[in-house]
## 1
Amino acid sequence: MAITPMVESAPEPGPARKGGRKPYAKPSRPPGERALIASPGTWFVWAGIAAFFIFLFGIISSVVVDSFGKPWFDTWLPETFTLDWYTGAWERFNLSQIVLVTLGASFTVVVLSILIGVPAAYVLARRDFPFKKLVTVLFLLPVLMPPITYGIPLATVMYNFGLGRTVLAVILVNLVPSVPFVILTMTPFIEQINPAIENAARMSGANMRRVFTRILAPLLVPGILAAAILVLVRTVGMFELTYLVSGPTSDTLVVAIYRAMTSSGGGEARQLVSSMGVLYTAMMLTILVVALRFVNPTQLVARVKESRDD
Amino acid sequence: MSATNTDPRPKASASRRHRLAERGIDTQLLMLIPALLFGLLLFVYPFTYGIGLTFQPLPRTQEQWGGGVFANYVAFFKDPFLFDSVWITMRLALPVALFNVLVSVPIAFKLRHRFRGKRLLSTLLVLPITLGTVLTAQGLLIFGGRQGWVNRFLMEAGIIDQPFPIVNNYLGVMLSLIISGFPFAFLLISSYLSGIDPAIEAAAKTLGANWKQRFRRIILPLLAPGLATTFILTFVLAFSVFPSARLVGDALGETRVMALMAYRAFGEQQDYAMASTIAIMMGVVELVVIAVVLLWRSFLYKGTTGGKG
């Protein structure tokens, strides 16, 4: 990237400044300091970011325009704009039920995985016990494996038990990656909490339940919120696992969109799919905007780092 | 404050409890039970069941490929239609993961300092997560299609006179994977970079190391474990790609990935044994790649660099 040219001439720092921003190979700079002028590296970085965002916004806005446009064939923009596709899609795909299933299943998954995961994370963070390594591997495997690898056997078991195509199956299947995810994010978070606080509470006679409700819970709230939001986003967006077990009455929104795009006979009208897609993005965006008020995406990792320092 | 423990505990069991507690077993471990039950019932049991299922091939598989209980595996390795999907998947997932990591490094490196609009940028980078694979696919189909804005722009600008095929091929799947995977890689690498103590680099600077030397000798070795982790995570994301390979790819040709084959066996052919076989082979292939990366990583510096890893 930025390679500073060799300096051969005598160091004359003063007069060369006239040429505006040109102190490129100035020997007066401290060794190792780079010039302020935009180097090829900087150009590369900004070009890359620009290309990425052009594609990103192109994708988003073409879907949005498509979902509002009436006839849109070979022009830059559609001729008229309408809301028909939304009302059409709402009735055609029974979207009120689909949205209800999506949100209901996702929130259930969040609550269950927090309830199961946080106590386990506490034990893993604080305690040493026989077979701890084995238990950790058990919780690590579902995160490392591709979802399909365990999804297909799991779905087969669900169908064998007669749970196929039910909302319960959707919830259970989505718990498999969520619980380990909660455990893995919460364990370092709990590790950073000073155990002296808990010990003090125990010395004062608090039992385990009171330590949890009075001491740990308030301290854990930011971590739990972050984990909950990430699980929520993952579950709403989870396609692979849900698709395997869901049926007409238990489809989540992503799966419904996919089915509409691939249904036999060339798929549904493109605009109907687009309007569902916009709906999906709006839902996700709402969740994320609410989420970003509480957590910073890079904070979850950074906070761990701070804890390691002390 | 004055809550003294007046619980009269039976003394007889105390000693046994003590002995167990010394080995690390006491009532606190009960909190682990829901998670363990969950793991055994929803992960271990189905998984072992699935492995068992792979050795119970359907009669028609056995007839076609022979091999007795191993018929599914014989079919997997001998049927070019199935086995080629391994290479197709690798040809898609490896370049995408490499691209995401290698492009993220300079960008994260440039953007690690404070500047105006940094928070806006990282917020914008989270946007693709809200799109999801299915919507990215739909957007790419419209944006990059024959009538889409990209081709329209290129044609009106006179750069091309035939619409350039962006979707329904390898390129389309690759683009959709980059759009969903790159922000993830970028955010992870940024947080790893922020974990490197700037004092180390400052020290190198005072000793006269130039920019290239600092990057080569200080940043890169410290960042390498993080790079390995990021590579693994983006690879896992790209490896199990399925919706985009079907929607923006060429599902029967150059993007016939393993996941697609597994779903086909599961959903369309109802051959659960074969589906499990493909699924488990997928896990094996992925674990091999991860093992190679981890092996490479084990030769690198292993101290703490901050960050998670």
## 2
Amino acid sequence: MVTINPDMCKGCGICIRFCPAGVLEFSDEFNSKGYHPPRAVRPEACTGCDLCGIYCPDFAIFGILLKTVA
Amino acid sequence: MVNNNPVSDLLRTDRMPHIWCSGCGLGTTVNCFVRAAAGCGLPPDQITVVSGIGCTGRVAGYLKLDSFHTTHGRPIPFATGLKLANPRLKVVVYSGDGDLFAIGGNHFIHAARRNMDMTVICVNNFTYGMTGGQVTPTTPTGAIASTAPYGNTEDPFNLPYLADSAGAVYVARWTTFHVRQATKAMKEAIQKKGFSFVELVSPCPTLYGRRNRMGDGLDMMEGYKENSTIRNGADTRDVGMDISGKIVCGKFVDRERPSFLEQYNTRLAARLGPSYKNYEGVL
């Protein structure tokens, strides 16, 4: 499951490009700083690998295994 | 906002969002470092971070660890004093290529020569990001910088070779594309006794990438993916970087040498006999 904090995002697009499951894309909305944050277009494909979380320079996104949440 | 992120325990979230530009790799290196610090097995109150000046120098201010932001080029002398006053601490120096190798170059080679027990993490973005993109000792020959509008005419330092030849016991290089490997390398460096050195190649899209037609931060990350080769145990003489962008990554050196305090205590104990009590700090 992927969690996004849109207001922390600076729109670099690294999470979108390197997500192995292709879960993310840029949203059309702006955040408070005027960047386009990512949004989960295929949330069901997320494996919880947290690669987005470790790449994100702004600590704005992370993935977790649903198993660990439940 | 950031509070529910699993790494936020070791971040000063009240100082976020940080000052680094969109596409800058520094945040990624901090992200890797907090994971390495959380996974290294040491309690957070035993890890201290010392930074110098520059964009990378801001790292100390964003970590919820004991940290200090020193004057330009002097994180290693400060860290040396910290380690000698309280040898139980694990001291990490986190700074940039200009701070560690231009202004503080002398301190670096002597801390490595003494095998002072500390970890040095150098985020190498090939330029002075905070002051406007001047040439640093790692700017590749031919690269454009604000002080080299026709291209840099000097040869750059090969940082792993410098650290290796000065006596570091652990030397690794990764880029911000290799996040898992970088996290593991930082963890190993923190756990290693003696002078350990990790170089992290990071994009500076605003000042280095833009002038050298490398695109934005994402394009530079793609470049790292395409142009990097992993050669663990490679001879550090062969891992220099040039304007072509080819990067050799890996763990190059992992060896054992007695650290500064071990040598000090061994020598004085041999000379002074049983009357000498091992030095264990002033606290």
## 3
Amino acid sequence: MRQYIDKKNTQKKAYYNDRFYKAPQVPKEEVDSDEVFAKDVESLSSKFNLKETYIQRGQLVVYIEAKDIVKVMTFLRDELDYNFLSELSAIDWLAKSGEFEIFYQMLSTSKRKRMRVKYFIKEKQEIQSVMGIYKSADWAEREMYDMFGVKITGHHYMKRILMPDDWHDHPLRKTYPLHGDEEAQWYEIDKIFGKEYRDIIGPEERDSAKIVEKDTHNFARIKHEVPFGAEYSEEPVDTDYQEEDGILIVRKLSKKDVKILKERP
Amino acid sequence: MQKVNRLKPFFENLVFEREDNNMIINFGPQHPSSHGQLRLILELDGELVTRAIPDVGYLHRGMEKMAENMIYNEFLPTTDRMDYIASTSNNYGFALAVEKLIGLEVPRRAQIIRMMLLELSRLTSHLFWIATHALDVGAMTVFLYAFREREYAMDLFEEYCGARLTHSAVRIGGVPLDLPQKWLIHLMKFINDMPEAIETYEGLLDQNRIWKMRLEEVGVITPEMAQSWGCSGPMLRGSGIAWDIRKEEPYELYDEVEFDVPVSDRCDSYGRYKIHMQEMRESLKILKQLIPMYKETSPELMAHAPKYISAPKEQIMTQNYSLMQHFVLVTQGMRPPVGEVYVATESPKGELGFYINSQGDPYPYRLKLRAPSFWHTSILQELLPGQYLADVVTIIGNANIVFGEIDR
């Protein structure tokens, strides 16, 4: 039986954690420490409800309300001159709080500043598309839907982008299994032969590192290969991979036929 | 008599009978000039494209998911497989993002070696681009010449790190190796030979009637379009917007070297071709300035941060504490502080960004790869309609897209 893993969060865990270790924080600075950002936040907060604002590693982070997103983005583009939407995606916090965190990475070429607009949504909550404001959101939103299953309203072609159309589940969710499940090992046998052949054929071998009796040992040591299970011997064996009277696979080179270049011509 | 556009259908579920003259064709995913696995569904009116739907995902390996389940150093070689034409730029983008998250200072010599590798990979990428693009458009000779020079650049990579395509020569915190003996001499030879080679390509293409006919006024991206679709790199500068991250938000020592940012107002494929050519010259200029800078540096190659970076090999072999640190870092991995960072670098293709959300674990909680080609492919749906079918190949080739980084 496979070892039970928590289906809520399949993310790989560190095998050792110090009880007393407390992870340090990447410092968050006050918005007032940067003139340009201070102005931006001031004009943003006069129109919208900002939940949290800070600067981290030179970039402004603004938490807004989910319903404001289209207005905020329009305001950012038209009034604050953030002319690029570089990236947009989600972060899965479902195991922790049942929420997705959506982030929009913005760039202003005239101010040479980058900022991040963020908000939280519930799992089944739909968000509004910003495709009408930045066309680059088109594929990014499709990818977000594909990877997280975040539903987006107002998008012209809401389809999966990277995964096949008939794919089940959304791969970047933390609940998505990292390996195939127990059913998957029977999939091809059921499809090709039928369920009744399960006992005869056995499950598909899904462990690529498994050693079977047909493998040889020491195959990397030329002239010292031994059959599976046999002891390693110092005596060289003249294993010839060439079939007798067959077509030569490897032509044996003699030193005098070879021209070795000292330097590139 | 049979009417040409009124074929009788043989299959019940297909409708061949159409009111208009339109035809839907499937371009790719296995098409020699689709530069990987690009599938385009094109609606044609005669030879004019009226609608285009790019379809990607044939090379999807789930790199973001892989990143969430690997320690930081483990993920670095995976980034090689994004833009495999210039893999150092990916390695570097990731390493820089992690360094920024931790707040590491990289030694000066490592910075210079990194810049050399970055500019060399920019050259290999641009050489590959001009070779395949010219081949797509029909100029076979350029392909042969450009691949020869690319080979020399790859030789330099091979001499430095042993690998030609997937280098992994940049590590988090610096570089693992110093330059080998005579490497700078070989580099200098390469720098001296290259300008002539670039002139050869330009001599073959610049005034070439076929080349001009196929590139001029083809694939026009207006500045508004470029901004809205999130274009970057040569695609953006080809639309007259002078935005080069090396210049505007300098990382490493790009603020200490002199170089120009070529911009073109033509907005078409020919303008972008000129930019690529000019960028190669600028890269050579940067490389030339780096050689004397390298000679003035002290020999440290990796940052000193025992919590995150292993000590040098000699120290690990001689000092117990360094060995213990190294063991912990290899088995458990470094644990960057809690926080998030988005770092953009100018890869040969455009803005390559890494967004990392760390929760203080050895594994990133979320890692988003912002690959320029992804955004340059999405623009095809607006760029292709109105163009002729033959120009589709020009536009795809000109956009310099690589599927390793689109599908990730």
## 4
Amino acid sequence: MTKHLSRTLLARYADREAVLDEVTMWSVETHLEECADCRAQLAGGDALLDRVAAAVDLGIAAGPDPAPRRRSWTMRNRWLVWHLGPWLAMTVAVLGCAVLLQALEPRVPLVSLLAPVAPLPGVAIAWSRRHDPAWELIAGTPAAGLAMLLRRTAAVLVVVVPALALASSRTGTSLALALLPCLAFSAATIALGGFIGVYRAAVVLGVVWTLAVLVPAVVTVHVPAVVQPGASLGWALLTLILAGLVATRATSFRFSKE
Amino acid sequence: MRTVTAAESAPTTYPWAVHAQELRVKAGRHLAVDGLDLTLDTGVHGLLGPNGAGKTTLMRALATVVKPAGGKLTLLGEEVDARADLRRIRRGLGYLPQQFGFYPRFTLREFVEYMAWLKEMPKAEIPGAVQRAIDRTGLTAKAGARMKTLSGGMLRRAGIAQAIVNDPAVLLLDEPTVGLDPEQRLDFRDLLRAVGIDTCVLVSTHLVEDVVAACTDVIVLNEGRLVHQGTVDDLIAQGGEGDAGDSPAERGYSALLRRHRAEAAR
């Protein structure tokens, strides 16, 4: 079949309104089945789609720019980047140094000794009147309280926990001994924070751990019992108890401690 | 315009928006509010007092930022104590602190939106409410500007915008007119009068003229105690002498303070 369908016939076939007798319809369709040229002609023959597309493009160009998509969680968590970022970067850097030092001196388990205090700078800064410029504004909102404290602590742990996991895998420290003390001390900071404020709680716990465990272990080059593998269960229990304590004392966080 | 829902126009179950009895509040170790009795309802209440009178500490206690050290404080019908539903109270509060900072990289709109979110407003209402608050404080043109690029007066107005964004039942404004130029101060007084129709507004200020222009009544604090609560006319009726150029209300205010100090000294 070499003869192609006429443009007029194709146009009438394409037009829903036009009346086409059954025999012509049938012959057109038979031809279309076999002839790619005429199919192409039929598809592109009507400029309607092109015209519509052009008109839509024009309308879009003439109208106002689309509103930028609001990514509310990015906005809500942007304080984290600007406000908490430097402190978290410092924490990660210290852990990195600990990994290097432990490689040089494997007898001191520096990573597991630092694990409990690793989240403390971030947690202390996350909700402190001195470091949060918007503290006064936020303290009087319904969102303030334990929920906000937990949300911000979680934001800190999201960075500190993977950093600790990485450090423990680099040094061969048991994962439980890196993460459980970190969680236990985070819970302890919040629990104690209900009484004296989170910032003070973090300072107290950090100083106590440093003086009682970290410094003696480094000076005497011996591994304290609390960071030996047998202590994992103890840390897990401590974490659970402290988390339970925080849950029962939720009301003491309603007024923000300074 | 504020739209009033059926729930809001129904009679409220509490007699006063703010009710304090023998209220004591500490600022650090110092008892800055010492045995205050105060009852406030809808209207614009001006809070006057010399420096250190306890104005800011009282504001912070009413904003539930500090816990009262003693006495009884009732906000929106709920006693602020160990068992209070603070979240419910706080949803109905608007608070402009005397000094506040914010994350400098937020734009003004993001700042007000973030505050609306912290005030637990329904998600669908936030964009409209934020736009309204920004418009009412005359900051429409600055909505996209970063907080760090705003001038002192604009930051003050941004603070007012976040305070009114949730249509609070109790609005606490601590020195809202500081840094505003004269024209902005006039606009602010208009805003106060409009908001005060259905809201309990407490405005602390050291400018007696602000109180005379926009407040329905005046509260004078001195050394943590209530010295005077009454209309502006009551304040003027206190008489007293002053320098030339002092308004009658300013004279009345100084006379009140002098009398209170003399009584305290005796």
